[in-house]
Give the backbone structure.
Amino acid sequence: MSQENVDFVRLRFERFIATGEVDWDTLHEDVEVYDHDIPDRGDYRGHPGFGLWLREWGAAWAEWSLEPEEFIDAGDRVIIVAHMRAKGRGSGVEVDRQDALVYELRDSKIGRVDYYNNKVQALEAVGLSE
């Protein structure tokens, strides 16, 4: 089942990166998002919360790109390691770093997303190490 989880997440993530469109049918209605890169933001719940998180995250950048580098099987979770390049909307500061997201599956849908600003944090969050 784990490879199926990786394939499921890869397809949805790559589709979002290519089109900017979320496959809402594959998000659990109670999906939770925790952005550990912005500690004062709190959490986001449900489809409205997921959409709000995407809008707030995107609003910080004048331009951005995420290129997946690796998809790591972690049982019912999948770690996406991605190269992020961005330019701050207000500051103009350029960011070039490796970020990581942990997608947790629930009822054959994406039930939780945790966003980290590095691979090590994501691995530790799921009980793995480099």
